[in-house]
Write a sequence for this structure.
């Protein structure tokens, strides 16, 4: 009896199913027909987009918010190149996404074929953790399993599989196809016993210890471990972006964003003398080399699954290559209920900065529009602490991050080290698909909104109840404010965006849509948006003159009479 024959697309879809994949994000391309058919046959849901970059961002958000593999399927050539930004964004933030891209037939190599002529693997390799082209139909299962294993094991990150159309559409006898081995491998390395003891000793000898939770801590298991630890140890816990929610918003040890640590000296409070960086990287998002957030004088224990990240920028006093959950559990066990004298008093001091930011902006409305912080806070109050927030844009994302309070980790998705504007619509769609029962709020700026505004069509076609709020100040906010800080007055070059009525555009796509000019009208508009049951849009007209403090901080200062060169967003160049 002849062996059953399997088409390449069937093999790939079955491998994804074995790996637990139930959802993929895609944009149609003829190269992919065999796989798309296989996904339908295997019960893998497909959400289609209007731009490949948004599909990639959606897969990224799905991975960030669930901890599971995100899958993005795009076609060859321009489909692939359109998705490069999404790959790079996922790589810099350690998000496990499998990008599946089509390619022209192997047998037509170097014939100037349609959507060919470029080495997709060579282009992708710097932007992903691992990339390969599958050379034969019978190898699809084992190489796909390898890609999934690499994406989901430490350090996590995106991977790329290229499927030439002939490899994907050809069939092979089932008994010749390789097995998808190793798709469930998920090691969780724990600290060595001596490392746990040393970390406990550092805590017990400190007067002002803090924990800063980073990307690798933004998951339910680490959140549970931290809640167990802080039930016994009154240590303040601060977070980097996505890790917000590892402690509930009202938890007595929740210090809010890590940036609050930079405010302590301004309040006459001594900075931490021990920082435990839990699953986080050192870099821009922790103040770079300035020492403002992680003081130069503090001892540093860094816990990360990528040993190469430990010690970046500055020396560490204790390096632990381990899973964040296992590290917290080991610390809890090593402390055995002990904690340093005076820790509760220190916690109260350390948490004093949380809320100070809001007090700097007393007016909800100015003569030129609504204050963006008050707009963002109204959105957070309307959505609640159990919502899932996506923040896009320069200053808009910063206002949103300052306002949101969440109870669940991975509930604040925003920019990482790539600083990629335009992530918002894709992130919001991926988050809503991953969490259909939760409120998803996409808060963005008018500049960032323009990158992928066409994805409103995707939200409407798939009946996704995402509420998008644009803070429209009619300028590229961070850009024009930076220009005016650098060059003074009303200086601006290609940074104005006046005149577009985004609410009309959203309404034309089929969204419930409103424009709000006065702060008093915002809460009722948000209530109507959440009640409508489908995708909704609120355009909030904000004051373009308001500058977010992060913009000023990122530009730094040049002392009077100094010849140092002011560089936007980076360290100033010292005079030679």
């Amino acid at each position: 009896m002849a062996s059953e024959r399997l088409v390449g697309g069937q093999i790939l879809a079955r491998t994804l199913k074995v790996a637990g994949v139930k959802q993929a994000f895609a944009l149609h391309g003829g190269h992919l027909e065999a796989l798309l058919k296989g996904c339908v046959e295997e019960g893998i849901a497909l959400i289609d987009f209007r731009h490949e970059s948004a599909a990639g961002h959606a897969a990224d958000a799905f991975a960030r918010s669930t901890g599971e593999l995100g899958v993005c399927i795009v076609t060859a050539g321009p489909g692939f190149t359109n998705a490069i930004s999404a790959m790079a964004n996922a790589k810099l933030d350690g998000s496990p996404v499998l990008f599946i891209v089509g390619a022209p037939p192997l047998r037509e190599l170097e014939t100037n074929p349609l959507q060919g002529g470029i080495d997709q693997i060579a282009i992708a390799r710097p932007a992903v953790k691992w990339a390969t082209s599958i050379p034969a139909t019978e190898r699809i299962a084992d190489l796909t399993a390898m890609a999934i294993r690499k994406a989901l094991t430490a350090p996590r990150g995106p991977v790329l599989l290229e499927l030439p159309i002939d490899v994907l559409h050809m069939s092979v006898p089932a008994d010749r196809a390789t097995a998808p081995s190793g798709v469930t491998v998920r090691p969780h390395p724990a600290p060595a016993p001596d490392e746990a003891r040393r970390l406990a000793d550092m805590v017990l000898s400190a007067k002002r210890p803090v924990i800063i939770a980073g990307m690798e801590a933004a998951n339910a298991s680490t959140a549970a471990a931290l809640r167990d630890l802080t039930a016994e140890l009154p240590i303040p816990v601060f977070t980097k972006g996505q890790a917000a929610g590892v402690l509930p918003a009202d938890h007595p040890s929740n210090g809010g964003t890590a940036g609050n640590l930079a405010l302590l000296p301004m309040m006459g409070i001594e900075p931490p003398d021990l920082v435990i960086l839990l699953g986080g990287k050192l870099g821009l998002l922790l103040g770079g080399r300035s020492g403002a957030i992680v003081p130069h004088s503090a001892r540093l224990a860094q816990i990360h699954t990528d040993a190469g990240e430990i010690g970046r920028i500055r020396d560490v006093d204790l390096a632990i290559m381990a899973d964040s959950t296992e590290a917290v559990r080991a610390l809890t066990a090593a402390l055995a209920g002990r904690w340093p004298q005076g820790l509760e008093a220190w916690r109260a001091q350390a948490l004093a900065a949380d809320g100070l930011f809001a007090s700097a902006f007393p007016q909800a409305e100015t003569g030129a529009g609504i204050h963006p912080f008050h707009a963002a806070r109204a959105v957070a109050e309307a959505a609640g602490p159990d919502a899932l927030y996506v923040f896009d844009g320069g200053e808009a994302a910063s206002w949103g991050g300052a306002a949101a309070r969440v109870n669940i980790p991975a509930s604040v998705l925003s920019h990482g080290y790539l600083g990629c504007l335009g992530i918002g619509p894709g992130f919001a769609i991926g988050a809503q698909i991953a969490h259909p029962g939760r409120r998803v709020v996409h808060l963005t700026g008018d500049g960032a909104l323009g990158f992928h505004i066409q994805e409103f069509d995707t939200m409407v076609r798939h009946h996704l109840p995402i509420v998008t709020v644009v803070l429209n100040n009619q300028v590229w906010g961070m850009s024009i404010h930076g220009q005016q800080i650098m060059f003074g007055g009303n200086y601006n070059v290609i940074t104005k965006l006046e005149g577009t009525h985004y609410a009309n555009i959203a309404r034309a796509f089929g969204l419930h849509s409103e424009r709000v000019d006065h702060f008093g009208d915002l809460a009722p508009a948000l209530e109507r948006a959440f009640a409508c049951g489908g995708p909704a849009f609120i355009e909030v007209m904000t004051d373009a003159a308001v500058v977010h403090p992060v913009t000023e901080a990122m530009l730094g200062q040049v002392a009077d009479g100094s010849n140092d060169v002011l560089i936007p967003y980076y360290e100033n160049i010292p005079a030679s």
Summary: The CA atoms of residues 43 and 90 lie 26 Å apart. The chain has 22 helices and 22 strands.
